[in-house]
Design brief:
Elements lengths: L11 H9 L3 H10 L10 E6 L2 E7 L4 E6 L6 H16 L3 E6 H6 L1 H15 L4
Parallel strand pairs: 3-4
Antiparallel strand pairs: 1-2, 2-3
Length: about 120
């Protein structure tokens, strides 16, 4: 793997901008998974893989969590998301997706689903 595949320095300013301008859903989820608060796993915010930036990423289990707003139902964005997901899967990274509204309205269910998906993808020791 080339040394710029993960957290490419060229995307540093964009990652910082995204952290500063988090959505309400991102703020809510980050508060619950940061600092190894979720299953003892270290998650990062706005972590880049190749040319893509993941909302949240745990390198130990190669899992990303993506939160989608209404812009993700547009045809062009749907195609972009599919290409992005193919690239990440080819990089052996599993993606779990949620709508922002799910995080805002049902955070407990979101956390249960993340935990369940993680166990399917990589059983926790």
């Amino acid at each position: 793997m080339d040394k710029f595949r993960f957290n490419n320095k060229l995307l540093k300013d964009r990652r910082k901008e995204l952290r500063v301008n988090q959505t309400e859903a991102e703020k809510k989820l980050w508060e619950l998974i940061r600092g190894r608060r979720f299953n003892g796993l270290k998650f990062y915010r706005q972590y880049s893989v190749g040319g893509y930036i993941l909302d949240f990423y745990c390198p130990k289990i190669r899992t990303g969590v993506e939160l989608d707003g209404s812009q993700h139902i547009k045809d062009k964005t749907v195609l972009y998301d599919k290409d992005r997901e193919k690239y990440l899967q080819a990089s052996n990274i599993h993606i779990i997706r949620f709508w922002n509204s799910e995080v805002i309205n049902s955070i407990e269910l979101v956390l249960e689903k993340i935990s369940s998906e993680i166990k399917k993808w990589r059983p926790l020791s």
